[in-house]
């Protein structure tokens, strides 16, 4: 009965405002305050809720499963190539699943540039952060660290602990903003190192205390069996409880070691203005030329260091998952531009150009950053992709702020130039209430195009296990996946048409939602936090795509 009453608050509207004179199907939810009593129909932790339909399942999914069923009555026309600009990928898995893009003009492993495009043996893509001998760059600086390096170098890190250190540069807005961000991050980084050291010490001490009572690979049941024995012994009881929680929540020795490695690396590399993060690549960081490189920089090894750099593997596995896609093949073109730190604008430029020149229809960039050291070349390459009918999908970011505000601006963006191929995505949660927008998600009426689910998303990792991921990265990949589905059936659609279809077919929600993290928290009408005012709806988008395509 609750769900029936809930459905009465839905209105299906047909609006005659679509750019091509076609109908615009928008699922409009009248009042989000009515949804607080609705409990999502989730089975368990393996539930793919984000693919479900609001009518059938009472969760704020994108109706992807419904779109797949609708597509079974359509003619499948083309395998779409999705370029993924990210960290290294699980190329073996993609190849086994026939989801890896192949450059048919290149002969594998002959150490030659057969197609004369400047890249040797680029059979499946290119690693812009690989060294010729095969090594991989793991750490790169944040862009705000690079800005400090540009204006203040050489300046020891300790002098940047206070905003007083930049008073004499206060007329430089970029430097002031970068310094503020830097100081926030370095304080956080110190806390993270201290936390990593603490949990490492707790794990070690607890194991020493219990070493005579546990097997080498102890289980939760073993720990449970010790609780009644030592219930009066505070030291032993606390040690059992700590090891139990570590085991239950995946705080293994290797996890803690990796956590410490990344936390320490953030201090020593990402936040170190003197760290030269292009030496390994034999690249002049001051040379921002966008001419075709001679490519001593980069290699064709796409699966380097995915133990530490796992984000690319997660995103590509998610986009290409054939089980979810019902055997629709999306070809993944991996282009490695990301490490731990911020991407170089030069790498983004060259990767987008590579993707466009080699036939990608969609470019997924599940990242954004707070600064750009060379925004002009990014503007140029986004326009190049626009001119060649290629969509670029990117993340709104995970700071929980309004990116329409100058201080919170993200890069890349398209706010200062007219293109029709650039899509910025925010994240929503499973709840159909005022917590619908993920608290970490950035938002903005002008600079976010639409939202898509980005919490509790199940993705297969490089170990072939499912893990739960959250973030606007995942929301972005979900939009790219949907675009790939649409273009598989309707490859005649232009980038502009696909973007307008997506924004014109969203699920709209009327009512206030809570936005931002605790320090920035506020309420706002959901329809006023993105251009579309809604959430991706794959089923509506595919229906509308059919109408637009058939009207040509």
TrEMBL record:
The keyword Protease applies. GO terms for molecular function: serine-type endopeptidase activity. InterPro entries: Peptidase_S8/S53_dom (IPR000209), Peptidase_S8/S53_dom_sf (IPR036852), Peptidase_S8_subtilisin-like (IPR050131). Belongs to the peptidase S8 family. The lineage of its organism: Bacteria, Pseudomonadati, Bacteroidota, Flavobacteriia, Flavobacteriales. This is Cell wall-associated protein (CWBP23). The keyword Hydrolase applies. It comes from the Bacteria. GO terms for biological process: proteolysis. The active site is at residues 86, 311, 473. It comes from Leeuwenhoekiella blandensis (strain CECT 7118 / CCUG 51940 / KCTC 22103 / MED217) (Flavobacterium sp. (strain MED217)). SUPFAM superfamilies: Subtilisin-like. Keywords: Hydrolase, Protease, Serine protease. Residues 330-509 form the Peptidase S8/S53 domain. Gene3D superfamilies: Peptidase S8/S53 domain.
């Amino acid at each position: 009965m609750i769900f029936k009453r809930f459905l009465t608050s839905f209105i299906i509207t047909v609006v005659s405002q679509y750019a091509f004179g076609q109908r615009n199907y928008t699922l409009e939810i009248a009042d989000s305050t009515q949804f607080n009593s609705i409990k999502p129909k989730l089975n368990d932790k393996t539930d793919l809720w984000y693919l479900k339909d609001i009518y059938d399942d009472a969760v704020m999914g994108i109706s992807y499963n419904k779109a797949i069923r609708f597509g079974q009555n359509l003619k499948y026309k083309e395998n779409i190539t999705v370029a993924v600009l990210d960290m290294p990928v699980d190329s073996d898995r993609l190849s086994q699943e026939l989801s890896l893009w192949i450059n048919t003009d290149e002969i594998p492993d002959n150490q030659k540039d057969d197609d004369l495009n400047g890249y040797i043996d680029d059979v499946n893509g290119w690693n812009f952060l690989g060294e010729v001998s095969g090594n991989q760059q793991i750490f790169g600086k944040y862009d705000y660290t690079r800005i400090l390096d540009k204006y203040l170098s050489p300046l020891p890190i300790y002098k940047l602990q206070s905003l007083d250190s930049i008073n004499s540069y206060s007329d430089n807005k970029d430097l002031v903003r970068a310094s503020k961000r830097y100081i926030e991050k370095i304080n956080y980084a110190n806390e993270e190192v201290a936390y990593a050291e603490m949990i490492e010490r707790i794990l070690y001490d607890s194991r020493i205390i219990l070493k005579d009572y546990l097997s080498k690979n102890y289980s939760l049941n073993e720990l449970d069996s010790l609780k009644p024995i030592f219930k009066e012994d505070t030291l032993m009881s606390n040690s059992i409880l700590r090891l139990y929680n570590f085991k239950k929540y995946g705080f293994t020795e290797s996890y803690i070691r990796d956590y410490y490695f990344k936390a320490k690396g953030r201090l020593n590399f990402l936040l170190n203005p003197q760290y030269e993060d292009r030496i390994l690549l034999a690249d002049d960081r001051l040379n921002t030329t966008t001419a075709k490189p001679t490519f001593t920089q980069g290699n064709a090894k796409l699966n380097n260091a995915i133990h530490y750099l796992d984000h690319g593997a997660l995103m590509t596995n998610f986009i290409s998952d054939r089980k979810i896609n019902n055997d629709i093949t999306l070809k993944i073109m991996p282009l490695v531009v990301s490490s731990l730190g911020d991407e170089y604008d030069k790498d983004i430029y060259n990767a987008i150009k590579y993707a466009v020149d080699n036939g990608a229809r969609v470019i997924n960039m599940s990242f954004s950053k707070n600064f750009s050291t060379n925004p002009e070349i990014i503007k140029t390459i986004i326009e190049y992709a626009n001119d060649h009918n290629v969509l670029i999908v990117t993340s709104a970011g995970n700071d929980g702020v309004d990116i329409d505000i100058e201080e919170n601006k993200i890069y890349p963006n398209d706010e200062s130039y007219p293109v029709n191929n650039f899509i910025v995505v925010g994240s929503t949660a499973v709840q159909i209430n005022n917590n619908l927008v993920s608290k970490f998600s950035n938002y903005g009426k002008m600079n976010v195009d639409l939202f898509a689910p980005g919490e509790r998303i199940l993705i297969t990792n490089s170990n072939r296990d499912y893990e739960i991921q959250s973030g606007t990265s995942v929301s972005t990949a979900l939009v790219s996946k949907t675009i790939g589905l649409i273009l598989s059936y309707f490859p005649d659609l232009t980038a502009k048409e696909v973007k307008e279809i997506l924004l014109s077919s969203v699920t709209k929600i009327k009512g206030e939602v809570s936005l931002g993290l605790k320090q920035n928290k506020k309420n706002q009408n959901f329809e006023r936090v993105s251009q579309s005012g809604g959430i991706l709806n794959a089923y509506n988008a595919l229906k509308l795509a059919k109408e637009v395509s058939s009207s040509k």
